[in-house]
Amino acid sequence: MAAQLTDHTLWISYRQGDKQALGKLAERYYRVLRHYGLKFMVDGAIVEDCIQELFLQLWQNRSRINDTDSVKHYLLKSLRHHILQNLRAQKKQPVQDIDWTGFLAEDISAETLLIQQESLNSLTATIKAQLATLPAREREALYLRYYENLSIPEIAEVMNVNRQSVSNSLQKALNKLRTKWLSPVFVSAYVFFGIILA
């Protein structure tokens, strides 16, 4: 059986007019895109419409779409643009009110956090409470960096800010969390976020 095609191979095929290649990318990233889209506190149906519109536009504009080093990054950036356009059109809440902490409760497991002394629910509640105190931009940067594993340049493009701004947001957020958490919780959270302590 042939090995699974890489994102880059599928992207090249799609740009050359292969509709099935784009369909495979849509299947591969639907869950990631929907999960990210729901962070904007919009109805699931709106997120799904935006995802459908995104892939429709990708197909219609395939001859003008550039190559990309990261299909995931490209799709997240594009979906963000579609959702924010939708929010502006409906004159809904500004981006500052978006909740970036919701991914914790449904996506972390005891194995991931390596919890020994505290229950998963207790630790999750603590992390969520501390993340809720951060500005929305810092929470979004943390989400994209440590949950979606995007690089700083990719996050800068997704959020439409410069790289230094992303670095500053991440550093500020981590510094704030470091000063607020007790040592055991802090260490567990660092394991969760995938950070190597210096």
UniProtKB/TrEMBL annotation:
Gene3D superfamilies on file: 1.10.1740.10, Winged helix-like DNA-binding domain superfamily/Winged helix DNA-binding domain
SUPFAM superfamilies per record: Sigma2 domain of RNA polymerase sigma factors, Sigma3 and sigma4 domains of RNA polymerase sigma factors
Superkingdom of this protein's organism: Bacteria
Residue ranges of domain RNA polymerase sigma factor 70 region 4 type in the record: 127-177
PANTHER family for this protein: RNA POLYMERASE ECF-TYPE SIGMA FACTO, RNA POLYMERASE SIGMA-70 FACTOR ECF SUBFAMILY
Protein family: Belongs to the sigma-70 factor family. ECF subfamily.
UniProt protein name: Sigma-70 family RNA polymerase sigma factor
